[in-house]
Amino acid sequence: MWTIGSLTTPIAGYIIGFYGLNIGCRIIFLLALCALVPAFIVRQIYLQEPELGRRVMSDRSFSSIKGYLNSLSVVRRSRIILALLIIIIIAGFYNSSYAYFSLYLVHEDGIGLSEDVASLIPSVSSMISLIFSLTVVSRLKSRDSYLKTLILGYGLALLILINSRKGFLPTTLLVAALLGFCSTVAFSVSRTFLSNQIDTADSRARAKILSISITLSSLINLPTPTLVGYLFSLNPRTPFIIILANFLTSMLILIGFLKKQGSPP
């Protein structure tokens, strides 16, 4: 849904370009409201609690605060769940910094693209992401393939971005394609692996651990946009160098936990 929604970026750019920032944003917010209200109504009517959810709600050991404490004990017993939680938290740093990617595209000390050309980049990224989601992501069935994809894609994309020549569109399109693909892999596959590992340990803890991962990531990365903004003001390349270091750290953590676990991929 996120990927398909991002395809509308040029439309949003056209609206803002035609009506100005103030009126244009109001129109976009109104369109978003008109799309969300029917979505919430449909979800309210048709969304049903799964059988597992009913069992968990009737299980006192996984209800209320006690359920979170028991879920944390599940995390403590599983190295791979802990590693995936750490990676999701670290990935939150990238997600909180992504707004500066667009600024980097148009900044005179960054890529230096014109605003109309820069507005096409998210759409290109989304199209590539959608294509690879339908063709490649479904084939990532092992941890090794998942790790290789993330390391090659994210690492290569950030290195190219940091060293891109000013105003050179082809490398920017390549970065957009790689980031789009890897964002899909990181978002979907990492959570799939996490859910599978939780189910292996104790399926009753799945909802609690997933909510813990999102909450911890949001809390820990609360100051990230301000920090990245300050670093961006010093040098537009600095935030992306830190994001690259952050990403490599998360991959080393996952590889280390997998080796200690000693299980096959």
What would you say about this model in short?
The chain has 14 helices and no strands. With 265 residues, the chain is mainly alpha-helical.
Describe the structure.
- The chain has helices at 2-6, 9-19, 21-46, 51-58, 64-77, 79-97, 99-106, 115-118, 121-135, 143-162, 169-202, 206-220, 224-234, 238-261.
- The chain has 265 residues and is mostly helical.
- The chain has 2 domains: 1-48, no CATH class; 61-261, Growth Hormone, Chain: A (Up-down Bundle), CATH 1.20.1250.
Nearest-integer average pLDDT = 77
How many strands, which pairing sense, and closed or not: the largest β-sheet? none
Would you tell me the structural class of the helices and strands? mainly alpha
CATH architecture of the largest domain: Up-down Bundle
Radius of gyration: 20 Å
Number of domains: 2
Portion in helices: over 70%
